[in-house]
Write a structure and sequence with these properties.
With 335 residues, the chain is an alpha/beta fold. It is built from 10 helices and 15 strands.
């Protein structure tokens, strides 16, 4: 079978398409023929050697979808022919986050999804909504689940709340879609007026171009008449100060990304004077994923895909992620 590996060095140029033996599942395991994968910013960082992984070679990417083609003895959760997604954290089934639950992550401490056939623990996969294509379903395990956990497991968004999402990448667009399903108002920021118009078409109630409105945090607080209830913070270094301006007293800042950098001085007086809840989070459990897919199935929601690449063009997909010009998700379709 074919697989992409980071082989020579940590870079996009270090990726190679290699031949590997096709796996056979033993007791408790399944073999999944992968049909699609999707990119996250974390995948780009990992390929570049910034993801905390030190051992080469590595099969990258955490998110994908495929079809079960074989099961080992004792497997009852899924059957041959089921359409499934592998879970990002193979060790987090339910319960609160812990070091143990985060131990086994695809495309990091475990081989990723850029292989034609994956060998997985049967507990580490979950069925996908019947109305979604494999390409659409491949966007769910990280970006979709992170947005879901942020809004509903941590922030407990309810009708009438106001949610601010930064940018128009995968997590932010999922957060926009989920917040609208919950009956919340949504503010979207971007440097592109064209992307902001597309966000409005998805239901955004208000938008700010952060180039023309650099003090968008204060502007967002003014638009709401006192501050937004929840901020989905994906920027990091260059956006956190504005998030502090935008949030209301007692609000939630949900920190899930570092697109503009890792280091930032935090105005600690703002944290206690506003009585803020600043919550760092990454992805979620299998139980949360199944809540997510049930909601998507009930509402007939479809993920937003910017562009699909062929399996042989994975380096080009990573370069598009690096440029940051996408709206929604970048995906890879297997042959």
């Amino acid at each position: 079978m074919k697989a992409w590996q980071v082989v020579r060095d940590w870079s996009i140029e270090g990726l190679e398409l290699v031949d590997l033996p096709e796996p056979t599942p033993g007791p408790g395991h399944v073999a999944v023929r992968m049909k699609a994968a999707s990119l996250n910013y974390r995948d780009l960082l990992t390929v570049q050697g910034k993801g905390g992984v030190s051992r080469l070679p590595l099969i990258p990417f955490s998110d994908g979808a495929g079809e079960v083609i074989a099961v080992g003895d004792g497997v009852v959760r899924v059957a041959v022919g089921d359409r499934v997604c592998p879970m990002f954290f193979q060790s987090w089934i339910d319960g609160k986050v812990s070091a143990t639950s985060r131990r086994y992550a695809l495309g990091g401490t475990r081989p990723g999804v850029l292989q034609e056939v994956m060998l997985l623990d049967a507990e580490g996969v979950s069925r996908i909504p019947s109305h979604l294509s494999f390409l659409e379903a491949a966007t769910l395990p990280c970006a979709g689940l992170t947005a879901w956990r942020a809004l509903f497991e941590e922030a407990r968004v309810k009708p009438g709340d106001t949610v601010l999402v930064q940018g128009t990448g995968g997590v932010s667009i999922f957060a926009l879609q989920f917040a609208k399903l919950a009956g919340a108002s949504v503010i979207v920021t971007s440097s592109s007026d064209e992307k902001l118009e597309r966000a409005k078409a998805l239901g955004a109630d208000h938008t700010f171009n952060y180039r023309s409105v650099p003090e968008w945090g204060k502007a967002a607080a003014g638009w709401t008449g006192g501050g937004v209830d929840h901020v989905v913070e994906v920027g990091g270094k260059d956006t956190f100060a504005q998030s502090l301006e935008a949030i209301r007293i007692g609000g939630n800042i949900l920190v899930i990304g570092v697109l503009t950098g890792f280091s930032q001085q935090i105005a600690i007086p703002s944290l206690f004077s506003k009585n803020l809840h600043v919550i760092g989070l990454s992805v979620g459990s299998r139980r949360m994923f199944e809540d997510l897919t049930a909601a998507i199935g009930r509402n007939g929601m479809r993920p937003v895909i910017d562009r699909a690449f062929g399996f042989d063009a994975v380096p080009d997909a990573l370069r598009l992620m690096q440029e940051g010009g996408h709206f929604g998700k970048i995906v890879v379709e297997f042959a």
